[in-house]
Structure of Transcriptional regulator, AraC family:
Amino acid sequence: MENEKNSYMYKKFHFDNVFWDVPKKYDSIILYQVGDVSCQSGYKCEEHKQICYEISYIESGKGYFYTNGKRYDVKQGNIFINLPGEMHKIEADKIDPFRYLYIGFIFNNDIGLEDEMNHIKKMMDNTSVVPLKEDRVKISQPFFSLLSEIKDINEYSHVMTKSYIYQIIILMYRNYFSNWEYEYEFQEDMGTAKSMIYNVINYIDNNLTRIVELKDISEALGYSYPYLSHTFSEETGLTLHGYYAQKRLQKAMEFLIEGKKSITQIAYALNFQSIHSFSRTFKKEIGVSPSEYQKLHEYNKNI
């Protein structure tokens, strides 16, 4: 959260949108603040208690983010996360002061256990997570799209805004918490459980268009489905269904961006029961319909 009193004179510009009095609700996410600030030498955001989750992206320059007294050197291309209750402070570098984007939010208390955002919340609440990471998922794209949408409100802005917020949070999750997949790259001396997880990941990645139901995976690998599902969850922290659904949607987005298949062909290639089932699932998880996603990709590509 920005401290205007102490820092406004050291900003080149600050596009700040605050909703503290009337937070914006987007299903599982409640938005408090989103902004873009370009700093001058001497910029400081004084130490304050974090009241919401915050994701920051360093667009250019460098500086320092502090969490509970610990300093982190941040630079262009870094992502930084803060959790509610933490003590937070920001300083810009004196020679190459940064520009950064940020979003402050909380998770809706009404989200159910099966909601994908519930898993992301649990992972973010893990205080052992290092808050600083190098961006490898191009999180700046939905950040700028979100800021643009809020600045120029138009038809369906609520839908578009929700989509960009969800993209930022999900991309953050992938950047911080999807590395567990790399732990299961094949090694000769891996244990039985890790070996099984490697086989599951490898099978799903290479057979997305062949898997009709999850039991197909257990049958192909020679395990009982309950055992396979339980072990996968114990090892990775994700349900087998959740991982498969995530990979299937990723493949769907790849197909949509390629543009070589119709939406109907994509639905049946990935073994959805119908195009309506595919469209309903896609919109629920991504925030826009498959056709809208294609249009968004074309629009962003032409900007």
Notes: The longest helix spans residues 157-177. The domain at 4-179 is CATH 2.60.120.10 (Jelly Rolls). The CA atoms of residues 113 and 119 lie 8 Å apart. Confidence is low (pLDDT under 50) at residues 2-8.
